[in-house]
Amino acid sequence: MEEPVDTATAILASAAVLLRERMFDDISYRALADEVGISERTIYRQYPTRAHLLAALSNWIEQTRFPLPPFVTVSDFRAAVHERFRAFDTLPAFAYVGARASAISPTLDTEPTYITRAIEAMLDVAAPTLNRRDRRRIAACLRYFSSAMFWARLRTGFDLDAGDICDAFDRAVDTVLAKLPDPTWAEP
Amino acid sequence: MTVPELSGTQEAILAAYAGLIEELGSDDVSYRVIARRAGIAERTVFRNYPTRVDLLLATAAWIEATLFAREESHSIFDVPLAIREAMERYDARPELAHVVAETAMRGVSGAAPSPGRAQLERLLDAEVPALDAAQRRAVIAALSHLDSVGTWVTYRREFGMDRRDIADAAAWAAEAVLDSIRDRVTPSRDTL
Predict the structure, then answer these.
(1) Of chain B residues 144-163, which have a CB less than 8 A from chain A?
(2) Which structural domain range is residue A20 located in?
(3) CA pair distance A101, A61, nearest whole angstrom
(4) Labelling A174: which of A19, A97, B14, B67 has CA 20 to 30 A away?
(5) Could you give the CA distance from residue B12 to residue B35 in angstroms, rounded to a whole number?
(6) What is the pLDDT of residue B107?
(7) Residues B126 and B94 in one domain
(8) How far does the CA of residue A180 sit from the closest CA of chain B (Å)?
(9) What's the first-to-final CA gap in chain B, in angstroms?
């Protein structure tokens, strides 16, 4: 029998296929096992709880469907987030999985995500003399407004599409960056 | 926020489930254990909440309306205070906070991701009625987003912040959003 990918990844790829026709909650381990062609027990061995499956599925979707464009400047950051929100709009079922996975009680890796690190690095360059406390407040806020959670909340709670969500995101970024005193900005 | 009227039995089920989530986590709680904790028959739980998703949505709404209830703000400019207090409440019940956060992000299946939206709109329209539609929407969206358990989860998980830092940073962000409309307040004709 040929195995093009490892079992753990094969399970995630099949879960993603099933996600096109039903919600994550409606994907049973039984159905998933049938889709992959393995036993239900093998899935339990890889993903002992649905929370584990959700977290792993979200990571896999992030990497394969929503890779974050690299950014260094604030305007690159805005463009990268816009691109992501537009990608979320084209694959909403996948984006909801990301929003949900970022809300659950962490299962295994509690490492900050790549975008968190990238935002912190961006602020280090953009505002090198900013005090530590304000930098953290700003970084946390930018991170939270660039999240799948923000997209999901505005899509479900406010019926907005990616264009409107990008606009709301830009305005939030404007208000937060306006808190930075001018002299803390690096010389252009 | 409004919660549909609950029967005594339903309230007992939701309280029992919330208690068990704090002890065991949300994945491992069977209907049998919930029924035993609530002192009722398992089939009564099924009759009220046919699926686990039904049960989870009802429980999250109940937690938000009781354990995480916030004092009503009388001004849009008081919202940062409510956010600060809400973050402290989430921090005291981390397991329940995660359950509420995840439930709000379920997409279409009956979850209400912005329960406080109507209240924010009422306050904003009373005090700052002259905003254009896009700006009004952006202010409401930003404050709804910040005034939610997602803030607590994200700040904790991504930045390792503790209770004080989260409460401070969330309230600070809300003040930043309000800075954009501070000079747009219309004097009220019927001030109490």
Answers:
(1) 144-146, 148-151, 153-155, 157-161
(2) 7-48
(3) 11
(4) A97
(5) 9
(6) 66
(7) yes
(8) 10
(9) 25
